[in-house]
Amino acid sequence: MTETTLRAAPQTEAVELARRLAARTMRTWSLIAYEEPVTAIVAELVANAVRHAGTPLELRLERRPGGVRVEVRDRAAGMPRLTIPAPEDEEHRGLFIVDRFAAAWGAEPVSGGKVVWAEVTT
Predict the structure, then answer these.
(1) pLDDT at 110 over 90
(2) Contacts of 30 (CB under 8 A, 6+ apart)
(3) pTM, entire model
């Protein structure tokens, strides 16, 4: 099992930092074919944490047998929920995108906040 972690402040710059880390990690792990779905998931989950939680966050990428797990931990108690955006809706697409790219995803309360996770099958 291999993993990498990023801790960030709740600022929009965290999304780009997380995206770059995810892309670099997929290349390091020789999983270039999965770079797009993993970076899309990372960007959406980090953006959601910045926008909705507004607390320091932690991104964790974990390589597991048969896949990659993405976890974003923040200090907010509110759990995310999937909404289906209307075609003209320019918001509320984050978890919709995660749902399309991930084999599975969910959220779990943890001490001091929550973890939102997604898994990409390799």
Answers:
(1) yes
(2) none
(3) 0.93
